Amino acid sequence: MKKDTIYIVEKGDYLIKIGKKFNKDWRVIANDNNIKDPHIIYPGQKLTIK
Asked: Which of 14, 30, 44, 49 could form a disulfide with 5 if both were Cys (CB 3.0 to 4.6 A apart)?
């Protein structure tokens, strides 16, 4: 069983870029982290990548 990864958002990050890094669809990352507006993420924000 794989463990979830916690990713800390860095300045200049956006969901598509993070999704490509982890080979995950950005919409899944947004949904898994209850992000209402996928255009707004903040440096220091913790995202769970399943």
From this structure: 49
- Indicate the pTM of the whole model: 0.90
Q: What is the pLDDT of residues 12-45, one digit of tens each?
A: 999 999 999 999 999 999 999 999 999 999 999 9
Q: Which residue has the tokens 């899944």?
A: 28
Close Cβ partners of 3 (under 8 Å, ≥ 6 residues apart): none
